[in-house]
Amino acid sequence: QVLIMFGSLITRGLLLIFGYVYPAYECYKAVEMNKPDINQLRFWCQYWILIAGLSVFERIGDAFIGWVPMYGEAKLAFVIYLWAPKTKGTAYVYDSFFRPYVARHETEIDRNLSELRTRVGDITLVYWQKAARYSQSRVYGILQYIASQSAA
């Protein structure tokens, strides 16, 4: 049991290093070149788009299939596959799966995001107004208390 937990901890650490830290550094180098290579920038943008999507599905996957043997190791192998130059994994996954799916549903995605922005804005405004009213009443109460103390 302890070995399994220790192995899981190592796998998660390696996933952070090889899935995020190393790619982030390579992306930094691509951005900071004297003459940035557009193909390198495109590659890293596609990589981070895929990682963002995988991060969402990872939360769901961890809850339902995290118990499967070698699940963590498979995630680690997959992120290495994505950025490894010999496999061209990012280009394959992005061009074969992600881009066609998003292109097919782009209008619907844009509409849903627009509705979400509107709803979030409306909810934020309501709570901001409630917080402002509450703050005003608390400040007013404090000022009344101070005034009553100085009058006494």
UniProtKB/TrEMBL annotation:
What membrane topology is given? Answer: Multi-pass membrane protein
Which InterPro entries does this chain map to?
TB2_DP1_HVA22
**Claim: Coiled coil is one of the keywords in the record:** no
UniProt key word Transmembrane helix: yes
Alphabetized, the UniProt keywords read:
Membrane, Transmembrane, Transmembrane helix
Q: Name one GO cellular component term.
A: membrane
Write out the annotated subcellular location: Membrane
The residues that cross the membrane are 6-25
Q: In which broad location class does this protein mainly occur, judging by the first location in its UniProt entry?
A: membrane
What family is this protein classified in? Answer: Belongs to the DP1 family.
- The protein's name is HVA22-like protein
What is the source species? Genlisea aurea
Organism classification, top ranks?
A: Eukaryota, Viridiplantae, Streptophyta, Embryophyta, Tracheophyta
